[in-house]
Amino acid sequence: MFKRLKINKRTALGAWAIMLAALFRSLDWIFLRPQFYTLPAVVVVFLEHILGFLVLLPWLVKRRWKIKVLSRNDWFAIIGVSVLGGLIGTVFITKAFFAAFGGQITLATVILLQKLQPVFALILARIILKEKLPAKFYVRALLAIWSWYVLAFGQDWLNVFSIQFWHHAAFYSLIAAFAFGAWTVLGKKVVNNLDFQLTAGLRFGITSILAFIVLLVTWDLWSISLLTPHHRISLVIIVFTSGALAMFLYYFGLKRVKASQATILELFRPLSAVILDYFLNGNILTPAQMTATIILLFAIYQIVKSQNKLVSFSANVVHGQGRGFHTANLDVINLELPHGIYLIDMSWKWKKYKWLMHFGYRATFHEAISTELYLANFDGDLYRQHVKVTVQKKIRDIIEFPTAEALKAQIAKDMEQVK
Fold first, then answer.
1. Are residues 81 and 179 in the same domain?
2. What is the per-residue pLDDT across 136-187, written as a single tens digit (0 to 9) for each?
3. Is 353 within 8 Å of 401 (Cβ atoms)?
4. How many CB atoms lie within 10 A of CB 391?
5. Does residue 63 share a domain with residue 152?
């Protein structure tokens, strides 16, 4: 019998990657981005993305065959991620923080409104990704958001009347919150179909193009000449911390956890900011912040530990490529699953079979997405039959093999897990 994992290394590794990305972003907003507040926000966004794209370019070149077989829906999701997270979200939150750094609006206004992101992400994950979560998840999410509030404001409890809701920078923060929430959800759809390296590279490349077009339209391209040597050093640091590296880590993590979980894990950012404040400035947590820290870590642990529902779907068996593999090709390719090799239960004619399933690109043959079952100890004819599949667990990612024989050898090895 296959057993569901309550918590596994894959999920835990994804959670740590997202929290580490949040730590790098804390470094950005505390120490790096404030240095650019005299420049147009789009200039900063363009430069950090074009530099990040150059860093990630080797991964794009290595996986260029996958770009050729991307579907229209894949491109729609990737462009959506670039527009929402790369351009709109980053530009508007940068403009909002620049307004706060320049004294036009309170920093508390920007921080509070921007942190509506989890609310938007949870709603959109339910609508777009159909992520059904138990009520206790939302209780833990509320605890995490409350803990974020206490950590962010400490003992200087926020006076609601100090929030400048009608200032244009507050509107920027609200737009950024929605854009980042939508970006998390669309990003999950993208990394389900693509590896995280390719996702990060395409996101940075497309955002660079979009930001460059905005610079041309707004006549802000000349502002690049205002960069000082100090700015250039800070940009390099951004690329290798909160920019390309953080995005690389974030997509790595998002591939391993739900979008709803990812948006709560991002609340680790205020905790990382408090930790940095302690080590760099010697400021000690207040009793309220200590309590909030414990609650936040507990909520994050429980969210990561929470079990995912098993994915089940029905499909028809269709003709395959006829390469000599003993497989059953299914007519379903739009599954909300990360690409990979899975252990599955298949039901057909009141019987159950335990097999392997390939879902994703045929890396060895450089072909588009397919869903096929690797059959073990089965001599019947499934062609044109209707079957039901229940996905038990993922056993490995899809990798490219030098020959079809090498692929067959790996399939035989994978089959050893079918008992």
1. yes
2. 777 888 888 777 777 766 555 555 556 666 778 888 888 988 998 888 888 8
3. no
4. 18
5. yes
* Beta carbons of 40 and 220 less than 8 angstroms apart: yes
Residue 83 has a pLDDT of 92
Taking a C-beta distance cutoff of 8 angstroms, is the pair 326, 353 a contact? no
H helices, E strands: number in the chain: 16, 6
CA distance 348 to 407: 27
Classify burial at 297, counting beta carbons within 10 Å of its beta carbon; exposed 0-12, middle 13-18, buried 19 or more: middle
Do residues 172 and 188 share a domain?
yes
Kindly state whether residues 246 and 391 are assigned to the same domain.
Answer: no
Is residue 394 in some structural domain? yes
* Domain membership flag for residue 134: yes
- H/E stretch holding 367 reads strand 367-374
End-to-end CA distance of the chain: 7
Are 339 and 268 part of one and the same domain?
no
Percentage, residues of the chain above pLDDT 70 = 84
Residue 258 located in a structural domain: yes
Please say if the pLDDT value at position 216 is more than 90: yes
Q: Find, among 254, 251, 111, the residue nearest to 176 by Cα.
A: 111
Give the residue numbers spanning the domain of 110: 9-305
Beta bridge partners of 359: 340, 371
Between CA 160 and CA 149 the distance in angstroms is 13
pLDDT band at 208 (very low <50, low <70, confident <90, very high): very high
pLDDT above 80 for 377 = no
Tens of pLDDT, residue by residue over 249-266, are 998 888 888 888 888 888
Task: Look at residues 336, 402, 392, 345 and name the one whose alpha carbon lies nearest to residue 373.
Answer: 345
Beta bridge partners of 352: 347
Residue 395 shares a structural domain with residue 257: no
The tokens for 125 are: 């994950």
Measure the CA–CA gap between 79 and 86, rounded to whole angstroms: 10
